[in-house]
Design goal:
binds cytidine-5'-triphosphate, binds magnesium ion, alpha/beta, Spore Coat Polysaccharide Biosynthesis Protein SpsA, Chain A, six-stranded mixed sheet
């Protein structure tokens, strides 16, 4: 059985309002993610934190709220409302994987420099994206230790608790996160392109 947690809480400080409820073409942002997830995961195994239940003060605490309300399952995917362009295929691929910790990631495109002026070889780094998927029991038990209240993501929790490194799927140009209001232009543009591609492939069938 698969479970899904959609993170749709948080204040949107950088966006200046709760971006997850912005309306894009007659639909709130979080609902784009839900409508994709529900094609892979049964509705009773989907928890939308911030919509079904109040979220926590940090992203980690919202994940915890999600895990507390999710019915027991074998694998869980953690999705973010702020990445509304996720595809059904990407959700399926994570859930069908049997890796205990799996994430999308992309090579860096810019030069990386430390705040102290040290240059780093960007070929040694990836940008970690979400969604990510996990063995449900491992992730739940890790969170139940109460050690993880403010981590960046769950692959980090899995590594800290069990030493399990994430498996990378190297794709996700569509998975950038809406952070600032200016990102909405890109989202609108990409969403239209995604809908056109879906229609084209449907008509071509
Ligand atoms: N999120 C959440 N609970 C929180 C914080 C964030 O569910 N306490 C979710 C957001 O809804 C978003 C994702 O986690 O889908 C990524 O968070 P982020 O982009 O940082 O959103 P905010 O925390 O709301 O924005 P900001 O950091 O600018 O305040
Ligand atoms: Mg935040």
């Amino acid at each position: 059985m698969y479970g899904a947690i959609i993170l749709a809480a948080g204040q949107g400080n950088r966006f200046k309002r709760k971006k997850q409820f912005e309306i894009i073409e007659n639909k709130e942002m979080w609902k784009y993610v839900y409508d994709k997830a529900v094609q892979v995961v049964s509705p009773q195994f989907i928890v939308t934190v911030g919509v079904d239940f109040e979220g926590g003060d940090t992203r980690s605490q919202s994940v915890r709220v999600g895990l507390a309300h999710l019915e027991e399952c074998e694998r869980v995917i953690i999705l973010e409302a702020a990445r509304p362009l996720v595809t059904v295929e990407q959700i399926s691929a994570l859930l069908e994987s049997d890796e205990p910790s799996v994430t999308y990631a992309l090579p860096l495109v810019n030069t990386v420099i430390g705040r102290d002026g040290t240059f780093y070889d960007r070929s040694n780094f990836y940008d970690l994206l979400t969604p990510q998927a996990f063995d449900y029991h491992l992730l739940k038990n890790a969170y139940e230790t109460d050690k993880y209240t403010n981590t960046t993501d769950e692959t980090y929790v899995m590594f800290c608790e069990y030493g399990i490194k994430p498996h990378f799927i190297l794709e996700g140009e569509n998975l950038f996160k809406v952070t600032y209001e200016r990102d909405m232009d890109i989202i609108n543009h990409m969403l239209k392109r995604q809908e056109k591609d879906e229609n084209d492939s449907y008509n071509g069938r």
